[in-house]
Amino acid sequence: MARRTEARFRTAGTAAVVGVALFVAACGSSNSSSSSSSSPAATAPASSSTPASSTSTTVALGTTKGSMGTYLTGASGRAVYMWVADSSGKSSCAGECAKAWPPVIATSTPSVSGGAVAADLGTITRSDGSTQVTYKGHPLYYFVEDPGSGTTKGQGNNGFGAKWWLVAPSGAVITATGTTAAASSSSSSSSSSGAAKSGGGWG
């Protein structure tokens, strides 16, 4: 009688162990499947945010009117310049020059507003691998002493051995200074066109 009772307990114990094992296995597979199915949802927001970060660095060239006429502007309305020392569509300004005259850099396709012409926009690859914006094939720069819109302290500057000029929407350089432009505007309403040279002559 005792042996039969012991055998029954053993059988019941074995069945209980098997049942627990099956339950644990079922829970494990359920957890792994749920975690694997949730992985794509967790990574989706990261991939969707990539385009937003790239468009935020897009350069938009616009135009502003000043005492020297209408000229091109970049980020925050800052004036942009070309450098006479550049040639063949390449930038000759690097190192200390680039610190004083930061190149207009874009990490995505630049755009235009105002009187700037989209067809005249372009880019070149600088020696450090960054992408510099060009207009009519000429590399564009900011000036460190122009903190925001409305200032053109770099106009006519002879820094690093060559002149820096503002650029008209036509692609011509504006060689007038503030004083000269003010004097000519009192005698003629077309002073801005007279102060600009054609895109072919950047000297």
Please characterize this protein's 3D structure.
With 203 residues, the protein is α+β, with helices and mostly antiparallel strands. It folds into two domains: 2-48; 59-197, no CATH class. Helix content is 35%, strand content 18%. It has helices at 2-48, 50-55, 96-100, 178-187, 191-194, and strands at 60-66, 69-73, 81-83, 111-112, 121-125, 131-135, 138-139, 164-167, 173-174, 196-197. The strands form three sheets. A four-stranded antiparallel sheet has the order 3-8-9-10. Strands 2-1-4 form a three-stranded mixed sheet. The longest helix has 47 residues, at 2-48. It is globular and about 35 Å long. Residues 20-27, 29-56, 179-194 and 198-203 have low confidence and may be disordered.
Number of strands: 10
The value of Rg in angstroms is 34 Å
Q: Low-confidence parts lasting 5 or more residues at pLDDT below 50?
A: 20-27, 29-56, 179-194, 198-203
Strand order, biggest sheet?
Answer: 3-8-9-10
Distance between the termini: 117 Å
Silhouette: globular
Reported for the largest beta sheet, the result is: 4 strands, antiparallel
The tally of domains stands at 2
Mean pLDDT: 74
Strand composition percent: 15-25%
Short description:
The chain has 203 residues and is of the alpha+beta class. Helix content is 35%, strand content 18%. The chain contains five helices and ten strands; from the N terminus they run H-H-E-E-E-H-E-E-E-E-E-E-H-H-E.
